[in-house]
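re: ur question from earlier - yeah i can do the single chain one, its not a big deal. heres the input i used so u can compare w yours
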Amino acid sequence: LTGPQAKSVSQLKQAGALILGKTVTTEFAYFEPGPTRNPHNIEHTPGGSSSGSAAAVAAGIAPLALGTQTIGSVIRPAAFCGTVGYKPTAKRISIEGVIPLSPSLDHVGFFTQDLEGLALAASVLCKDWANIPPPTQKPVLGVPAGPYLEKTTPEGKAHFQMVQEKLAAAGFELVTVEVMAGFDEVVVWHNELMAGEIAQVHREWFEKYKNLYHPKTAALIERGHQVAPESIKVYQSEREWLRGELREMMIRHNISVWISPPALGTAPKGLDSTGDPVMNLPWTYAGVPVITIPAGTGTNGLPLGLQLAADCNRDEQLVHWATQVSRALHA
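and the output i got, formated as tokens:
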């Protein structure tokens, strides 16, 4: 642990953190699973790509662990393992020293055991973090109705409905808004941008070591070779369009924060897959800050979470709003 390291690791060490070691991740933070298991049931995935980080915090091995998110690699594992997970506004935590998957989409985030730990770590890692006082009023919660929310499983929908009812009973105002009507297009834009950029990042490595890449990673890179540079620029620019749509709806309906399921349901059984990240994709593509908090369990006893997303650079407010929501859910 004395060689080159990411800036985020250096920041933590300078603040007095003790680095225990490196956790398992999927190959190049994509979809090929490692050997990590879910601490709540070792027959189930912990999620990914930041598999080891989520499992380490959930198992009590460490109070804080770093991860990266290009689609859903912090928020989904946090939900599957029952921890707090945080993906900041894009580039608010430096990605310097991180091997990229997709530079336009990559975020450094982290896992903690509680929201107090999140606030402490964010004050060290996030650029220009401000210690603002907690709000005196509850946030207005937006429910993003439409094709995005329809992706969840029946169990995920039922749990999310229960969460909404509990929050409404606790005095929160919930506003249901039809948004992201073109969600399927957003998925295509995100995935094509990711493929195109990983092909650029890995061009030299892939030429030399193609036979060492897992087939899933190799297939993504080869697909990325078909994405034209002009298309990559278009997909990059569409991120601002999505941010604008979400912001416009928040202003129009006085929404403080969006709430949604952080995964389709509980962690899938088996270690062949880390689960589907589709519920995290639009927030990552838009580059907005997201927190997931524990919000109960499924019928199989595994954790379920709640995902909260705010407008860009409202990370500090989001921590306070997540705290208010968490207290209501666990009252």
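The domain at 7-182+235-329 is CATH 3.90.1300.10 (Amidase signature (AS) enzymes). not sure if urs matches, ping me
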